[in-house]
Structure formats: structure tokens, C-alpha cells
Amino acid sequence: MTIALYIGLFVISLAVLLKASDWFVDSAEQIGLSLGISPFIIGVTIVAFGTSLPELATSIASVFSGESEIVVGNVVGSNITNIALVLGLTAAFSKKIELEYNIWHIDMPYLWGSAFLLFFALKDFHFSLIEAILFLMGIVLFLAYSFKSDEGEEGGEKIEGSKVNWKTYLKLIGGGLFVWLGADYTITAISELSAIAGVKPEIIALSAVALGTSLPEVIVSLNAARKGKASMAVGNVLGSNIFNTYIVMSIPSFFGELKIPANINEMFLPLMIAMTILFGIMSNNKKITRWEGILLLIFYAFFTAELFKSAI
User: Fold this and answer.
1) Which domain holds residue 199?
2) Angle formed at CA 239 by CA 236 and CA 244, multiple of 5 degrees
3) Furthest CA-CA distance within the chain
């Protein structure tokens, strides 16, 4: 009965977290448009940050609850899930993903750089404040370069006239509040379930939390593929993984010391780097085929099998 109660709490709190994140991002986007901020800048800041908001909220809550090993599990698990499951499903259900732009211009090198930086930062099983500051500098540089490269193009065009009222601001505040509450109860449920089942919290973070926080990306990407816009999934995965590594890893470290589990460093972080490199190789010719998508799904099955082995 107790296990069922905490499973129910986990499912409900995670659902609240994801829905509240949607409210927060939608209202922030409306407010940004009403202030004349360009759609491009909104996309690479508010929307990109919004895709990482559930991971960030659960990570900060885990530090406060004394379960900081969840942070790195959250980041690594979400990044693997985004590439192997989200991109894999999208490519498998599409004939192929055609890219309209060259992601090797800036996005893919930054994604690779974030993965390698995370590997070297965690090699000594310690994530220092200096490393956290360097990670924040990394995301600032990425955004600055993105803004600069878009100057004079669509980024310079602003859209005025988006109407907002008190309900929009109430939705923003309410969304932020429920994000925090959802994250707090999600971590409470994880802590209790891991204690009852004898499973390490970082394993639940790598599996259930990573999958749960990636479900919106799965749904959005599959819908985009159905409408013939499968390339949106690539941008979705790229932006989400870059923000996960630079933001979700660094900000929680300002609230307390992060524990780095040995099994993540030895098995799952190298797998994340391998998936990131594979993602880059697959997209080098500006297309990802159905067979490549199936290969990514095989890697996700391997990742899931390794999680089960670690949990036993």
C-alpha cells in the first residue's frame, strides 16, 4: 500500500511539474512577444530554458532534500533519452529527417563541447563552484553567438501586438509555483521509493525521471514528424541537451555540494558521450534515416538493460 501511494505521488507530481512548465513557458513567451522581443530570441532563451525547466526544478529540489546524486543522474539520463529515444522514435516513424540548416556551424560543436566538458569536470568525482561558473559561461557564450549569428536575419524582426493581461501574469506566477511544488514532491516520492525498494536514487533519476521529463519532447517530436517537420526534433534535442548540461548541472551546485555516483562516471556518462558523438556523425550529411533511428532505439534498449542490471 505504501509503495502504491508513493508511485501515485510520483506520477501525479511529475504530471503537475510538466503541465506547470507548459504554463510558465507559454505565458513567458506571450509576455516576451508583447514587449517586442524577437521570436528567435524567445526561442533560444525562454523556450529552450523551458524544455530544461523540469530537470532543473527536480535537481534543485534534490539538493535541498539531501539527494544531490539525482542531479547528475537527471542530466545524463535526460541527455541519453533525448538522443536515443526522442530522436530515435522520430527518425523511425519518418522516412528520414531532412535538416534545413547546418547544425555543425555552431550547435553541434557546442553540444559535443558540453559533453566532453562534463566528462572532465566529473572525472575526479567532484563538481566545484569554479566548474559551475565555467558551465554558466558556456551557456552565455552559446546564446551570445546564437544572437550574433542571427543579427540581420529573422532574429532582428520583432513582432508587436501580442496581447497580455493579468491572467497571463497569474499563469506565469502559478506555473512557477507549481513547478517548484511538483519538483519537490517528485523528489520526495523518489527518495521514499528508493529507500523502500533498495534502489539507488540516481538509478530512478536516470530512468523514471529522465523518461518522464522527456515525454513532452517525445510527443512534440512525433507530432512534428507526422506534419512533415521532423527536423524540429533535432533542434529540440540539441537545445535541450545543451541547456541540461550547462544549466541543470551548474545551478543546483550553488545550493549545496553535488554527489557524483561512481556507476554514472564509469558506465552512463561514457554512454552519453558516445550517443552525442553518434548524433553528430548521423547528422553530418544533414539527414537522419529511419535505419539510423532504429539504431538509436537499440542503444536506448541497451541503456535500459544496464539500468536494470544496476538496480538489481
Assistant:
1) 2-154+163-311
2) 115
3) 60
Name the domain count of the chain: 1
Helical spans, DSSP H, in 123-165: 129-150
Question: pTM for the full model?
Answer: 0.80
* Distance in angstroms (rounded) separating the CA atoms of residues 22 and 301: 29
Terminal C-alpha separation, the chain: 22
CATH, residue 15: 1.20.1420.30
The DSSP string of 198-254 is: T--HHHHIIIIIHHHHHHHHHHHHHHHHHTT-THHHHHHHHHHHHHIIIIITTGGGG
Cβ atoms < 10 Å from Cβ of 151 = 9
| Predicted confidence (pLDDT) at residue 51 exceeds the cutoff of 80 | no
Q: Is 55 helix (H, G, I), strand (E, B) or coil?
A: helix
Summarised one tens digit per residue, pLDDT across range 91-150 is: 888 877 887 667 787 788 999 999 999 999 999 999 999 999 999 999 999 888 776 765
Residue 37 has pLDDT above 80, yes or no: no
Cell of 200: 539507488
Query: Quick check: 79 and 276 in contact, CB under 8 A?
Result: yes
